[in-house]
TrEMBL record:
Signal peptide stretch: 1-30
Keywords per UniProt: Signal
Taxonomic source organism: Hymenobacter guriensis
InterPro entries: DUF6268
Name of this chain's protein: DUF6268 domain-containing protein
DUF6268 domain mapped to chain residues: 137-351
Domain of life, per lineage: Bacteria
Alphabetical list of Pfam families matching this protein: DUF6268
Length: 368
């Protein structure tokens, strides 16, 4: 998918992919991590790498390669689960989650590449699975255990270099989030929409920053949050990549084929859950659908390494602090909490394979 590019388009393919993928990454709840780096043709003249700037972009020299296709798998060991019912007809639950795993697949397709306008479309599929012990004879967890939590999404990202100093980016994303199966899938029942806008300044090839707003579910229900983007490379070894307060990462460039990252992130999702058996609330009304809000804070350490030319891998480990795993009444405007759950904090580990532009394309770009 990624490399079927017409010959005359190859010269600017890497520049376009880099600029576009950044919009898909740093602001999203499920982001490409870390944000991509600009090739020479996108930020400086081809024969003046690191000197004369042409078009301002959010990325800086030294960041990791652009990711076109990503395969990510993550797993946690067992941890305790305690759920406190907020309605009298529903019992409490205490036990363990013996399995919590996530599979994430992402891909990005460039659509438009102009000197002052770049557009990229992204698609993603995610699945989170749980298993409980003792077996959860509990309406919410029965659904999750049997069908899993899924995300099927598409996004449109635009980056607009205004001049040699200023840039802005915009992204809108629609996702179908919930415990649906293929036969149950309904757009109106599961659709979640998020968007971001950031306006920024490129001070040098090593420093770019911006201010903006994000509409999303990172901290629970859909809300608007401020965003401070700060990308800076201090020297040939150290840099910072941040979208505060959602994520801050320190980067260590071990070589041009190996990078190390350390920092934290705040991750959140909202799932719509259709219950097999309705829950009766305190007013006697039957609830057949709940909204599950999941928010967690992670401390993380990540290593990325080139395997061969266009193929890289990433290994990540860290510790997850669960802030919320609560179910709400979707039919009520005040989103009344129905189940208050506490997931014990736990370590996690993940493995990722991703495809980047081949070096021969990058070399052609530099030599044009």
């Amino acid at each position: 998918m990624m490399f079927l590019v017409a010959p005359r388009s190859r010269r600017r393919f890497s520049a376009f992919l880099t600029a576009g993928l950044l919009t898909a990454g740093p602001l999203a709840v499920a982001q490409v991590y870390p944000p991509p780096a600009p090739p020479a043709s996108d930020t400086v003249a081809a024969d003046q790498v690191g000197r004369d700037q042409e078009f301002a972009t959010p990325s800086v020299v030294g960041m990791g390669p652009s990711k076109g296709l990503v395969f990510h798998y993550e797993r946690m060991p067992r941890f305790n689960v305690a759920s406190d019912s907020k309605v009298g007809t529903l019992t409490d639950y205490k036990g363990e989650a013996t399995k919590n795993a996530r599979l994430i697949i992402k891909g990005y397709i460039p659509f438009l590449n102009r000197p002052h306008l770049k557009v990229v479309m992204g698609i993603n599929y995610e699945r989170e699975e749980f298993q409980f012990a003792p077996s959860a004879n509990y309406q919410l967890y029965q659904n999750i255990e049997d069908k899993g939590l899924k995300v099927l999404g598409a996004q449109l990202a635009v980056i607009r270099p205004v001049n040699t100093t200023n840039w802005y980016l915009f992204r809108v994303k629609g996702e179908l989030n919930g415990d649906y199966t293929s036969s149950e899938l309904s757009i109106k029942d599961y659709l979640k929409v998020s968007s971001e806008f950031v306006y920024g300044w490129k001070r040098s090839p090593q420093f770019s920053w911006g201010l903006g707003l994000q509409l999303g579910y990172t901290f629970g229900r859909q809300s608007i949050y401020p965003a401070l983007l700060y990308n800076r490379t201090f020297n040939d070894k150290w840099g910072v990549e941040a979208l505060f307060p959602a994520r801050v990462t320190v980067r260590r460039n071990l070589s041009d084929r190996s990078l190390l990252f350390a920092g934290y992130s705040v991750d959140g999702l909202s799932y719509n859950i259709k219950l097999r058996e309705p829950i009766t609330n305190d007013e006697g009304r039957q609830l057949r659908t709940l909204e599950l809000r999941e928010t967690e804070v992670r401390g993380r350490l990540r290593w990325e390494r080139e395997i061969y030319d266009f193929l890289w891998f990433g290994v990540e480990g860290g510790y997850r602090y669960n802030y919320a795993f609560d179910a709400f009444d979707r039919s009520n405007n005040d989103r009344r909490k129905i189940i208050d759950s506490k997931l014990a904090n736990a370590p996690y580990a993940s493995l990722e394979l991703f495809i980047v532009p081949p070096r021969k394309f990058l070399n052609k770009t530099l030599n044009k």
